[in-house]
Design brief:
By secondary structure, this protein is mainly α. About 70% of the residues lie in helices and about 0% in strands. Helix 1 runs parallel beside helix 13, helix 3 crosses helix 10 and helix 10 packs parallel to helix 12. The protein is globular and about 55 Å long.
Length: about 350
């Protein structure tokens, strides 16, 4: 959905943007076949918000099953970084080899590997190049993810069973401080604060953590209160239509927890297969997909379908050849710390 949303955005701006080729500015020319589907795909970007909720759920559950923060950190690294390296190289090669308005507009350069592979924000590296960016713009969410890993690891190491409450307090405090800084003139402090605590998304992870706790126990007034805060926090950052969709995400989670038989459909082999490959698919889908679509815009929406299916196939290949070996890699790294990961 994000891939199609990107294509729709490019289609809408084709009359006003220009790109430089051979020293001459030329209008971006994307042939129209996206606008008529805009009403379907325009909220596709909220899939990232859903991913953050799921991440809160999964990561907190993972922490509860591990005794060591080192084990958690190593397994997260081996899960995220090798596919990021391979997918970044694949995306760079595609963007560098195709010559069309989209690849020219993105202008992917070798230095873009730095923020991509360090999972940091591009502005930290503008001293190397003012145009430095991610290899694929979709990588921005990984910068949010690693900060969540950092804070939840520290909180869990200190509070253990009560860590969900501690994270809820941290999340609510982040929202309150953010509101204060919005109305202050402390712009520099506000920027630093946003980089450390990601207020626009922290409450989504918090919601996922609460759902994880409820999954192991049952709903209580404290859980309802925490989820109510998460919904209220969304009003600060999103429009009404977006808030409705995010609220629907919450309702779906609650229904799945209330009637767990519904969750059984998630064991469908096809869904399991896509779920296991979803990380690599996400890393590959946007720039490669849009570059493929724009390379032959006259092909119509069918080319977008081919791009989506192609992303799924490529993501599956990366999962089978790289991600599935992350377990062996994590065990090898843990042995360097004197930890036998097989016993954890």
């Amino acid at each position: 959905m994000e891939l199609l949303r990107e294509k729709i955005h490019l289609e809408r701006t084709r009359r006003s943007q220009t790109y430089r080729k051979g020293g001459v500015k030329t209008p971006l020319t994307f042939y129209p076949y996206g606008d008529e589907y805009a009403h379907i795909w325009r909220f596709g970007y909220l899939g990232v918000e859903l991913f953050f909720i799921i991440s809160g759920f999964v990561i907190f559950s993972s922490l509860q099953s591990r005794q060591s923060i080192i084990v958690f950190a190593v397994r997260r690294f081996t899960r995220l970084w090798p596919p990021m390296l391979i997918c970044s190289v694949m995306t760079f090669m595609v963007m560098a080899s195709l010559d069309n308005p989209f690849t020219t507009l993105k202008n992917v350069q070798f230095l873009d590997f730095i923020p991509s592979l360090t999972l940091t924000k591009p502005p930290l590296w503008t001293w190397l190049s003012p145009d430095i960016n991610y290899i694929d713009d979709a990588y921005w969410s990984l910068f949010v993810e690693v900060r969540f890993y950092f804070w939840i690891s520290i909180i869990f190491a200190i509070w253990r069973e009560k860590s969900w409450i501690a994270f809820l307090v941290m999340s609510a405090s982040t929202t309150i401080i953010h509101i204060f800084l919005i109305h202050s003139e402390l712009n520099k402090l506000h920027q630093i604060f946003n980089q450390l605590f990601f207020p626009k998304y922290i409450y989504l992870f918090c919601a996922g953590i609460i759902f994880s706790v409820v999954y192991e126990t049952k709903f209580s007034k404290w859980h309802f209160g925490g989820l109510a805060y998460c919904i209220i926090a969304s009003f600060i950052f999103f429009r009404i239509a977006e808030i409705v969709i995010i609220s629907i995400f919450f309702i779906i989670f609650a229904l799945l927890l209330y009637n767990r038989k519904i969750i059984l459909f998630l064991k469908n082999p096809v869904l399991v297969w896509i779920g296991l490959s979803s990380y690599s698919i996400y890393l590959l889908h946007q720039n490669i997909g849009v570059a493929f679509i724009v390379n032959d815009p006259n092909a119509g929406v069918s080319r977008a379908v081919i791009a989506i299916l192609g992303s799924i196939v490529l993501g599956t290949i990366v999962h089978l050849t790289i991600e599935r070996r992350s377990g062996a890699l994590s065990l090898a790294i843990l042995r360097q710390f004197g930890v036998d990961g097989r016993k954890l």
